[in-house]
């Protein structure tokens, strides 16, 4: 999941002469809706052509129709079999989202707190920064086994892993944002008689929020890209567990269904976060 | 200027690194290469590799040994035509020979038959004294493995289905962790983890017993059909070395244990213990009607594979089981049993 920088939030609010605005408005909407749709159509056509060309084995490039059938099979009860491994697709996805949600909430809360402290107090930053960078450099797979030994095989190690994946980006972004809070504004507030706490509450945090939000979006992305690792052991129900199990059986169509489910839900989550960001920090870029 | 220097440095570094991969395989570009996929379960494969018998017997070829962690990965490599020989369990072979994979390979050797080295163990204090007691309990096993197959076979022998117990997908090292923490009540797994579990648990059934009951799990070696058609003489040489390794396991278990230990990083004593618990056939048994069979008369192994394929179909991992004929056609019996004689 990547982070897009939003550059079109104000379009609707800028007053324009009505006659000129209408066609442009429509053209804008057309490009925004039609282009992504067109790219999807082109993608499916290329995919179908690649599968039909028969250069690659079906296991490597199955037909789009095969994947669609796998999607239907995984989403419904058919021939007395419930979805994949006894759970429907949405149940797999729900369990994963639940884990990601809890993990991200813990990771981001700790990360933002840590970032605030690190950004405001110099010596804390010196102490914690190497630790944070160390943690950030670790692939989750490397330490997941330790979490299993310490925390068991149920929800605890999975949520801990996702929280550990989400923490560093949130902490790093918040630290950077707090450090970058405009000194001029801080001094002005100080000169007007604000206490240290007030300066942090009314100046530093509001100016740091937009970048913190970017950090949160990155954190969610990091957590989301770790779900297969998190669900490596006892991962069913879970979309990561589904992908892992299906690949153990060389079941490519189901693997692709899982990948699409992860990708699409990632897009939706990022869209929601961007909407939340627009609501929560409308002053982004205007400070 | 600085940017240019930086780019130049990155470029030079990339070129150097690309040219200096760490590779000790000693390949000679002038000779054709035979690619062999192996796994680290104790078997004759590892003796052949460690003693470099193939390299000696086939001086006109490069021999490239590639390590795999699961039969699914070996199947993938066969599909990609990246392997000529590969070692994998009977369950992945049954999957590979059935639709939709239909991998063009043939079973050319039986590396070992699972014996007491794979077993279902219940933890002391969990009040499980028989397989029927497993109802509703948590049982760990690595999914898609031969142990998974054996576990479900053992359950169905006792009138239980997969839904009557809580199956947990765990790799052996995680089984040990979950076992010590009390997260699982029983597990179907293999050595060396199995020996650790046995310290605080007891066997409910072993794969040796399941084999007697008609549900054996085996480690097989497969050869790519295209390769065996083009180089039958190489397959003959390879089979002879594998047969020689089986003889070594039988006649000189210490030497066998030492060679295998060197490959998988365990002590020779540990490996000797593992070899005792597995079932290693003699070359004559491999070519008997019970296993591979003889030239033109594929043995009983085809029926084992068919049964594994039916099991996979019941598990909904393949759309439908392949017919017996498919598996009979996929046994490489050319020249058997004489081809295995030294």
Give descriptors for this structure:
heterodimer; A: 287 residues; MetI-like fold; 11 helices; 75% helix; disordered N terminus; B: 342 residues; D-Maltodextrin-Binding Protein, domain 2; 5-stranded mixed sheet
Structural summary, described in words:
The complex is a heterodimer of chains A (287) and B (342). Chain A has 287 residues and is mostly helical. Chain A has a domain at 82-280: MetI-like (MetI-like fold). Helices cover 75% and strands 1% of the residues of chain A. In chain A, strands 1-2 form a two-stranded antiparallel ribbon. In chain A, a hairpin with a 2-residue loop joins strand 1 (77-78) and strand 2 (81-82). In chain A, helix 3 (89-120) runs parallel beside helix 6 (155-179) and helix 10 runs antiparallel to helix 11 (252-280). Chain A starts with 17 loop residues before the first helix and ends in a 7-residue tail after the last helix. In chain A, 35% of the residues are buried. The model of chain A is unreliable at 1-16 (pLDDT under 50). Chain B has 342 residues and is of the alpha/beta class. Chain B folds into two domains: 33-113 and 217-340, Periplasmic binding protein-like II (D-Maltodextrin-Binding Protein, domain 2, 3-Layer(aba) Sandwich); 118-212, D-Maltodextrin-Binding Protein, domain 2, CATH 3.40.190. In chain B, 45% of the residues lie in helices and 18% in strands. Chain B has 16 helices and twelve strands. Chain B has helices at residues 2-19, 44-51, 53-57, 71-79, 90-97, 146-157, 172-181, 193-199, 207-212, 225-230, 232-251, 253-264, 268-277, 283-286, 301-314, 324-329; strands spanning 33-38, 62-67, 85-89, 105-113, 118-123, 138-141, 166-169, 186-190, 201-206, 218-224, 293-294, 297-298. In chain B, the strands form three sheets. Chain B has a five-stranded mixed beta sheet with strand order 2-1-3-10-4, with helices on both faces. In chain B, strands 7-6-8-5-9 form a five-stranded mixed beta sheet, with helices on both faces. In chain B, helix 6 (146-157) links the parallel strand 6 (138-141) and strand 7 (166-169). In chain B, helix 2 packs across helix 12 (253-264). Chain B is globular and about 65 Å long. In chain B, 51% of the residues are buried. The chains are: A mainly alpha (287), B alpha/beta (342).
């Amino acid at each position: 999941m990547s982070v897009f920088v939003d550059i079109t939030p104000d379009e609707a609010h800028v007053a324009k002469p009505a006659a000129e605005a209408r066609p442009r408005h429509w053209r804008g909407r057309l490009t925004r809706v039609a282009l992504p749709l067109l790219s999807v159509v082109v993608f499916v056509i290329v995919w179908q052509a690649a599968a039909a060309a028969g250069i690659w084995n079906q296991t490597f490039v199955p037909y789009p129709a095969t994947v669609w059938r796998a999607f239907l099979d995984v989403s419904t009860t058919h021939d007395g079999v419930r979805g994949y491994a006894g759970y429907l697709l949405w149940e797999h996805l729900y369990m994963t989202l639940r884990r990601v949600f809890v993990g991200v909430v813990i990771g981001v809360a700790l990360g933002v707190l840590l970032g605030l402290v690190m950004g405001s107090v110099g010596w804390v930053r010196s102490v914690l920064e190497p630790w944070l960078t160390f943690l950030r450099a670790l692939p989750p797979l490397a330490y997941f086994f330790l979490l299993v030994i310490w925390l068991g095989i149920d929800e605890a190690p999975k949520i801990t892993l996702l929280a550990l994946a989400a923490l560093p980006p949130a902490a790093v972004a918040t630290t950077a944002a707090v450090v970058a809070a405009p000194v001029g504004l801080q001094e002005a507030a100080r000169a007007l008689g604000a206490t240290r706490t007030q300066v942090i509450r009314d100046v530093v945090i509001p100016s740091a929020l937009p970048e913190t939000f970017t950090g949160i979006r990155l954190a969610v992305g990091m957590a989301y890209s770790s779900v297969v690792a998190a669900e490596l052991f006892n991962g069913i129900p879970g979309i990561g567990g589904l992908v892992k199990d299906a690949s153990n059986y060389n079941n490519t169509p189901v693997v692709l269904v899982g990948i699409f489910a992860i990708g699409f839900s990632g897009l939706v989550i990022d869209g929601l976060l961007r909407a939340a960001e627009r609501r929560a920090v409308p002053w982004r870029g205007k400070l | 200027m600085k940017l240019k220097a930086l780019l130049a440095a990155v470029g030079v570094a990339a070129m150097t690194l690309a040219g200096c991969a760490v590779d000790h395989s000693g390949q000679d570009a002038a000779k054709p290469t035979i690619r062999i996929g192996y796994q680290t379960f104790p078997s004759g494969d590892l003796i052949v590799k460690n003693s470099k018998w193939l390299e000696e017997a086939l001086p006109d070829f490069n021999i490239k040994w590639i390590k795999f962690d699961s039969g699914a990965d070996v199947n993938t490599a066969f599909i990609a035509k990246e392997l000529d020989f590969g070692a994998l369990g009977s369950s992945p072979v049954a999957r590979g020979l059935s639709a939709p994979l239909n991998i063009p390979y043939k079973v050319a050797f039986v590396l070992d038959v699972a014996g007491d080295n794979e077993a279902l163990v219940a933890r002391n204090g969990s009040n499980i004294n028989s397989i029927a007691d497993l109802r509703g309990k948590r049982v760990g096993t690595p999914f898609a493995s031969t142990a998974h197959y054996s576990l479900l076979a053992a359950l169905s022998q006792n009138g239980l289905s997969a839904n009557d117990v809580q199956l947990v997908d765990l790799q052996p090292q995680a089984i040990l962790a979950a076992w010590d923490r009390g997260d699982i009540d029983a597990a179907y797994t293999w050595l060396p983890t199995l020996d650790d579990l046995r310290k605080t648990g007891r066997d409910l059934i072993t794969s040796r017993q399941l084999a007697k009951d008609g549900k054996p799990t085996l480690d097989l070696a497969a050869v790519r059909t295209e390769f065996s058609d083009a180089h039958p003489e190489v397959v003959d040489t390879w089979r002879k070395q594998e047969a020689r390794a089986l003889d070594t396991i039988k006649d000189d278990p210490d030497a066998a244990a030492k060679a295998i230990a060197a490959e998988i990083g365990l002590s020779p004593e540990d490996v000797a213990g593992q070899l005792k618990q597995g079932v290693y056939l003699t070359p004559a048994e491999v070519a008997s009607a019970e296993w591979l069979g003889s030239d033109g008369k594929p043995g009983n192994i085809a029926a084992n594979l068919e049964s594994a394929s039916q099991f996979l179909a019941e598990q909904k991992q393949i759309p439908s089981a392949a017919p017996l004929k498919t598996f009979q056609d996929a046994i490489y019996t050319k020249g058997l049993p004489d081809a295995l004689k030294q």
